[in-house]
Input
Amino acid sequence: MNPHPYAALPAEQREAALLEWLEPRLGRYLGRTAIDPSASLAEYGLDSLAALNLYGDIEDEFELLVDPTVVLEYPTLDSLAKHLAGRFDASPARTARERSGK
Output
């Protein structure tokens, strides 16, 4: 299995790329055209359905297993992008798929 192209990016660029990917998706789920990356997502009305949709997208696009409750620990786009960038190399989904050859 080939790693996602973001895996080859330096951490700083990976965070920026993830932020660029996250903002329009969350905007779509929240009915917004722009989201301040440093603002609390709760201020924008992030609910459990939007969180589930977002995390489904993350799993599909990046093969990163994430728990929808992580938005409570990383409540801004900035903090969420940084967290995801840090987890990118140690993805349990990617590791399990590489071991199984799928």
